[in-house]
Amino acid sequence: MSELRKDPVIGRWVIISTERAKRPSDLKVEPARPRGGFCPLCPGNEDKTPPEVFSIADERSGGRGWAVRVVPNKFPALSIEGSLQKRAEGMYDIMNGVGAHEVIIETPDHAATFSSMPVAAITNILLTFKNRLTALKQDSRLHYISVFKNCGEAAGATLEHPHSQLIALPVIPRRVLEKLDGAQAYFNYKRNCVFCDIINQETADGRRLVVSNDHFIAFEPFAPRFPFETHILPRAHLAAFEETPAELMSALAGVMSTVFKKLNAALGFPPFNFMLHTAPFNKDVGEFYHWHLEIIPRLTKVAGFEWGSGFYINPTPPEQAAQYLRDIESGR
Amino acid sequence: MSELRKDPVIGRWVIISTERAKRPSDLKVEPARPRGGFCPLCPGNEDKTPPEVFSIADERSGGRGWAVRVVPNKFPALSIEGSLQKRAEGMYDIMNGVGAHEVIIETPDHAATFSSMPVAAITNILLTFKNRLTALKQDSRLHYISVFKNCGEAAGATLEHPHSQLIALPVIPRRVLEKLDGAQAYFNYKRNCVFCDIINQETADGRRLVVSNDHFIAFEPFAPRFPFETHILPRAHLAAFEETPAELMSALAGVMSTVFKKLNAALGFPPFNFMLHTAPFNKDVGEFYHWHLEIIPRLTKVAGFEWGSGFYINPTPPEQAAQYLRDIESGR
After folding, report:
1. Could you tell me what percentage of chain B is helix, strand and coil, using 3-state DSSP and rounding each to the nearest 5?
2. What confidence score (pLDDT) does residue B31 get?
3. The domain containing residue B268 runs over which residues?
4. φ, ψ for residue A144, nearest 5 deg
5. CB pairs under 8 A between A and B
């Protein structure tokens, strides 16, 4: 059983995952994985993953195959069995590593990308996120779910087949608390949602806009940590991703498709991460929080200054990045 | 002139450094730098750097050469000229990128490492940090100095020659505020310095200790973000690094030398970062803060989960890492 440990100074929790314990020789830099080898996420190899917890049938195959498939991570950072058992060790706090760690296999097509996939395929992935968030929310031990994607080795991916992941946590992570606190303070002062105000200012200003439609907006944030960091938000004030109406998912998928076509054209299919920021469970944040998707192409290296300060040096002004992306014809 | 921009949600500041503005084609992954090429930091090439702001003479050369040399960064993230000019852009805050960005050339020897350098050479580097912190503290526009080292390409270094850097900032960074707030809350509750209490618990427990002497202690922290993350603290309660007596620097250099001998033996000269956490200027934190040095070997990749949550998955329990490091004979 792995452990969650809390840093006594800044309150940041860490997962100590003893089941993945590594000796120094395991940590040395590994060579790039050979391409074209065996893929446990490809159709036909379903018995190589843990049993699936959710899937969407592939309509094109007459319902015989799958379009999206969700399985527990074979080497989970947290495990769904057990109780939290909070305890202290002298001045330190520990709790058991209870939670969930799932892999969302986004498509049967090993070589697909968000710019090559049909919008309908991206819609299925988003409906899957909504389904898993809704299902895991029933577990009262869980307080937050982080949905994210690592694409490319430099972005931390260990498998090449298109997939995203979710980690359900028994505590609200520090970065999420920070966002909640910031949004609540803004609301207390202005009686407005800070994200709604950002959407209004970005729409009126226009210099940082990348693409938008009736329901969603994609823009380069005013203070981005990384070059070409791109945020996508629903125009409607919605705190929890899973409460977004299913019929809006294709509009979101359309914006995502365009954003990735532009990013991939501009940067040559960069490694990237995306992170879904959504409301925690069991906490009333509906008035002041607003879900958002952050996309980070991994172009610059994070080094000592960023680790030590939480400050980021970004060599590309967001207005320039947005202009560049707007000028790219995305084929829509 | 670059800009500092504040994220309106969580209050994190970002440097938008327009003078280093990059187009997408500049951001693609560069090939590894050729070894053995021209090095602007080597002796004889002093005219290839901006004029030095500090140096320590090399006693072995009879005072003709230098042992340590400090120069402004040729491509600074912040510039020392100008006023802050805080202003707003709608709901956003901006200020000019005023500050300092210096390179500490640690040794004339291009191939030196912290495990090969004599302890006296490391002592000179530490005395240089003390000198620069003391000098820059006089500038009332500056509120915090981040001293850090990026070693190896995977750790963000762009030059091979042994060097560290400092960035002096006109605001206190968020991660530092977080540490200060955590330490102050602990002090308000317990009337003790949280770092002094950590030193006491780690000394009594012993499982996470790496090495110590009369004045300094090195250990794996209880909740480390990364495998083999190692912290070094002075046993005496000292908030500001620059107030550490000069005569203690060789004791600190001795502990650093041993730690790097052990890390390099265990992990095969891994890329690493270190970050000095010290008291901000113009703020009375002496009662509750305590400077510390964080060393992070760069063995694991930070990916979407860590970016989205501020949670870290660490595959190596610190007790195992410390045991492994203690068992290595460091040649002292």
Report:
1. 30, 25, 45
2. 39
3. 3-21+36-326
4. -155, 145
5. 292
Write out the two tokens for B205: 């427990």
- HEC string of B259-277 equals HHHHHHHHHCCCCEEEEEE
Question: Six-digit token pair at A194?
Answer: 């800070």
User: Is B215 marked active-site?
Assistant: no
Question: Which residues in chain B (204-223) have CB-CB distances under 8 A to chain A?
Answer: 205, 221-223
Indicate whether A6 pLDDT > 70.
no
Of the candidates A165, A16, A20, A12, the one whose C-alpha atom is nearest the C-alpha of residue A97 is A16
Q: Is B294 within a domain?
A: yes
Domain CATH for A227: 3.30.428.10
Mean pLDDT of B72-98: 84
Determine the distance in angstroms separating the CA of A178 from the nearest CA of chain B, rounded to an integer.
Answer: 6
Residue A240 forms part of a structural domain: yes
**Euclidean distance between CA atoms B98 and B146, whole angstroms:** 14
Which among A19, A114, A29 is positioned nearest to A75, based on CA atoms? A19
- Kindly state whether residue B30 falls inside one of the protein's structural domains: no
Percent of residues, chain A, with pLDDT higher than 70: 88
* Dihedral angle over CA of A281, A166, A298, A294, nearest 10: -30
| ipTM of the complex as predicted | 0.89
> Residue B11's pLDDT is what?
63
Q: How far is CA A94 from the centre of its chain?
A: 26
Asked if residue A104 has pLDDT above 60, the reply is yes
Task: Tell me what the pLDDT averaged over chain A comes to.
Answer: 88
Lowest mean pLDDT among A63-77, A132-146, B9-23, B124-138: B9-23
**pLDDT for residue A30 is more than 80:** no
Q: Is the minimum CB–CB distance between B95 and chain A shorter than 8 Å?
A: no
Chain B residues near residue A296 by CB distance under 8 angstroms? 307
Residue of B54, B264, B245, B64 whose CA lies nearest to B152: B264
Query: Does some domain include residue B124?
Result: yes
pTM, full prediction: 0.91
Q: Cα–Cα distance between A175 and A231 in angstroms, integer?
A: 16
Number of folded domains in chain A? 1
Contact list, A293 vs chain B (CB under 8 Å): none
